[in-house]
Every structure is written in structure tokens, then in C-alpha cells.
């Protein structure tokens, strides 16, 4: 079976289990195909945890959930060396980060030391304990969640860590019709007589093959220039209007260009196209850039958001 068929089967399975969050499902698959990590922000009860668990069920990979709390220690993530008295030596006991898919639930509730340990794992795909460095699995994806409602007792993520996330996805409530379908799904799952749907997980090799296909998708020179124009405009917004320049303090780094390129390619591939169009770049631009822009006090005072700035930039840059 081809890579696209396998990913479509995975997408279909997730779609039957996650209702009302099509964007979240799509962005999860893009993160999987672009080999990056996802930061998801939304109110409680919007299927954030369920989404990553369903994704893990559909892949031949292991999954672990970490509930971030203020008393968490770096060793609770990375693992630690344990002394074995019988052998008279220390043996490294791997922590939860040594799984393929990791859910970092309410990541902003953990202190800086814990976030730093996670940052190394996300950025370098390795963990250092003492003098030893341990390599993480080849398939490694972190989905972190944030609750936008309660901010008491939280530790805001530093810009360096935010930049390591491929995308920052914000999700909202489902529609009336979707919520009715959610009720039906919940009732069916609660019935003792209803057997859970059997899923044949796709192999990791299919994911790696899909990633190669995504990187091979054609991107015309004018589309690449358009992509770069959007990122460069965040650093020199005055070219597109004085109002934009007075709102932005710092723009996006070259990592944003790399990320936007990979996400646009993955978006086009999921649409079963062998080329990238401007609509693919626009579709993922907000998720790629919103956490990489730093607005100044004037923008905050005027109620201007990063999403608003990105939308203005896209509207003022000529589409090829």
C-alpha cells in the first residue's frame, strides 16, 4: 500500500473518533509529516488529549502522557540513574520522553528547569543525563497543550522554546450539529455491548516514506519567493505600512521559513497535489507564525493580535 493510502487510512480513522476538530486533526498530520512538534491551545474538553491518543492508536508506535505540574522535576521527563546494589553500579532508567508520541499536558504549569529538559529533547532529539547523552527514537513527536483560561500559577514558555514548536494551533468549540454527533459517539463508547473499533496501525516506515514524498513535492520559484516574502515581512513590516511596523517588536527567524516550507508542502500532499500553491502557504501561515512574532506594548494597548498582523501581511503581499 502506498504512503498516501496509509496516511489517508489514518486520517479516516482519526476522523471517526474526533468530531468537530478537523483543523486539529489536519495539523496533527502535518506535524507528523513535517517531523515537528505541536503546541495546542484551547479550553478544557475539546478533545486535545483524545486526539493524540487516537493518533497513537493508529500508528505502530508507543505513546506516553505527562501531566505537567509545578512540582515536576527534569528527571521525571528524562529518566535518572538508579543504583543497583547487586551489581554495584548505576543503570539509566529511561523516562517518558523515550516514547514516540508524547503528550505534554498543560506544559506551562511546569517550572523553567523542566521546560529546559523538554526543549533539548524537542530540538536535539536527545537527552543528556550527567555525562551521558541518549538518542531519542527516530519517530518523535511532542504535542503540548495550554489552557488559556487559568493563568494563575503558570510559567509562560520562553520564546526560545516556543520557536521549537512547528505550529501553534488554537481550537474552539464544535458546532451544534457536531456536538450532537459527539453525544452519539460518547453513548456508543459507553455501551458495554459495543466492541471498540479494531484498528490496524500503520507502520513507521510508511510515515518516513510519506515524509520523503512531502519533501519531493514541486514548489515553483514564485511560490518560494512568496513564502519568503511573508516571513521577511515580519522583520521589515514597514514596507507594507507604517501601522504594521509600529506593532511588531521582533519578527520570525529563518526557522520560520523552513517550517512554513515544510508545512505548506505537507498541506499540499494531504490534498493529493504534487505541487505547492499559494493557498497552501496561506493555510498554515497563522499556525507557523503566531508564536514567533513578538508584539510591542503599543499593539497590546490597541488590542492588536499576532493573528491580526499576519492576516494584514497576507492581504498586502501580492499573490503570485
Could you describe the 3D structure shown?
The chain is an alpha/beta fold. It has two domains: about 5-190, P-loop containing nucleotide triphosphate hydrolases (Rossmann fold), CATH 3.40.50.300; about 215-315, Magnesium chelatase subunit I, C-Terminal domain (Helicase, Ruva Protein, domain 3, Orthogonal Bundle), CATH 1.10.8. The chain is about 45% helix and about 15% strand. It contains 14 helices and eleven strands. The protein has a five-stranded parallel beta sheet with strand order 2-5-8-1-9. The chain has a two-stranded antiparallel sheet with strand order 3-4. Strand 3 and strand 4 form a beta hairpin. Helix 9 crosses helix 11 (about 255-270) and helix 9 (about 220-235) packs parallel to helix 12. It is globular. The chain starts with a helix and ends with a helix. About 40% of the residues are buried.
Mean pLDDT: 89
Cα Rg: 21 Å
- Relative helix content: 40-55%
Major sheet strand order: 2-5-8-1-9
Any idea what the CATH superfamily of the largest domain is called?
Answer: P-loop containing nucleotide triphosphate hydrolases
Regions with little confidence, pLDDT below 50 for 5+ residues: none
Overall morphology: globular
Whole-number tally of structural domains: 2
CATH topology category name of the largest domain: Rossmann fold
Number of helices: 14
Largest sheet: 5 strands, parallel
Order of H and E elements = HHEHEHEEEHEEEHEHHHHEHHEHH
Strand content: 15-25%
Gap from first CA to last CA: 36 Å
Amino acid at each position: 500500500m502506498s504512503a498516501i493510502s496509509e496516511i489517508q487510512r489514518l486520517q479516516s480513522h482519526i476522523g471517526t473518533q474526533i468530531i468537530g476538530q478537523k483543523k486539529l486533526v489536519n495539523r496533527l498530520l502535518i506535524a507528523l509529516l513535517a517531523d515537528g512538534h505541536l503546541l495546542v491551545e484551547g479550553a478544557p474538553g475539546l478533545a486535545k488529549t483524545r486526539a493524540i491518543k487516537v493518533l497513537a492508536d493508529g500508528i505502530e508506535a508507543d505513546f506516553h502522557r505527562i501531566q505537567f505540574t509545578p512540582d515536576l522535576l527534569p528527571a521525571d521527563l528524562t529518566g535518572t540513574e538508579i543504583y543497583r546494589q547487586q551489581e554495584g553500579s548505576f543503570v539509566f532508567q529511561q523516562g517518558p520522553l523515550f516514547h514516540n508520541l508524547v503528550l505534554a499536558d498543560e506544559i506551562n504549569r511546569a517550572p523553567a528547569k523542566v521546560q529546559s529538559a523538554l526543549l533539548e529533547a524537542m530540538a536535539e532529539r536527545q537527552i543528556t543525563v550527567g555525562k551521558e547523552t541518549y538518542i531519542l527514537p527516530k519517530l518523535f513527536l511532542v504535542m503540548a497543550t495550554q489552557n488559556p483560561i487559568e493563568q494563575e500559577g503558570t510559567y509562560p514558555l520562553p520564546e526560545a522554546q516556543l520557536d521549537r514548536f512547528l505550529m501553534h494551533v488554537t481550537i474552539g468549540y464544535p458546532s451544534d450539529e457536531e456536538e450532537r454527533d459527539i453525544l452519539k459517539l460518547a453513548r456508543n463508547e459507553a455501551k458495554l455491548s459495543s466492541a471498540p473499533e479494531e484498528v490496524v496501525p500503520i507502520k513507521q516506515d510508511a510515515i518516513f516514506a510519506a515524509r520523503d514524498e512531502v519533501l519531493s513535492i514541486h514548489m515553483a520559484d514564485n511560490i518560494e519567493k512568496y513564502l519568503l516574502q511573508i516571513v521577511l515581512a515580519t522583520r521589515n513590516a514597514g514596507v507594507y505600512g507604517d501601522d504594521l511596523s509600529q506593532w511588531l517588536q521582533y519578527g520570525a527567524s529563518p526557522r520560520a521559513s523552513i517550517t512554513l516550507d515544510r508545512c505548506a508542502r505537507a498541506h499540499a500532499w494531504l490534498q493529493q497535489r504534487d505541487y505547492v500553491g499559494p493557498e497552501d502557504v496561506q493555510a498554515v501561515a497563522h499556525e507557523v507564525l503566531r508564536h514567533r512574532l513578538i508584539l510591542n506594548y503599543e499593539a497590546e494597548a490597541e488590542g492588536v493580535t499576532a493573528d491580526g498582523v499576519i492576516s494584514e501581511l497576507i492581504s498586502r503581499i501580492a499573490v503570485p
